[in-house]
Write a structure and sequence with these properties.
This protein has helices at 5-32, 71-84; strands at residues 44-46, 49-50, 56-57, 60-62. Strand 2 (49-50) and strand 3 (56-57) form a beta hairpin. The longest helix is centred in the first third of the chain and has 28 residues, at 5-32. The chain has 2 helices and 4 strands, in the order αββββα. Strands 1-4 form a two-stranded antiparallel sheet. It has a two-stranded antiparallel ribbon with strand order 2-3.
């Protein structure tokens, strides 16, 4: 079989086109079949533990943060309260 420049260039082009198509197909397949969790918010299991007084704390599910528009504001307000005047404040 005799190869001339046109046939060789056409074979190289067709191989690279096939590789590119296969790579694109695999990429699309992997991204489409990835983590199908919807919005990605799932409850997280908090393991049972012992608190600082030695009492047993039961394990429970921690629900994801609310999508309410005031959720972050309320969370920050609560965090501020417990860091500044809360029950477990460190006395200087």
């Amino acid at each position: 079989m005799i190869f001339n420049k046109g046939n060789v260039a056409q074979m190289i082009y067709s191989r690279s086109a096939i590789k590119l198509t296969a790579t694109a197909f695999i990429f699309i397949l992997l991204t489409a079949c990835g983590n199908d969790s919807g919005n990605g918010k799932k409850p997280v299991y908090v393991k049972p533990s012992i608190d600082y007084k030695g009492r047993y704390r039961k394990g429970h599910l921690r629900m994801p943060v609310s999508t309410d528009k005031n959720a972050m504001k309320n969370q920050n307000r609560s965090k501020y309260y417990y860091h500044t005047r809360g029950k477990y404040r460190h006395k200087k």
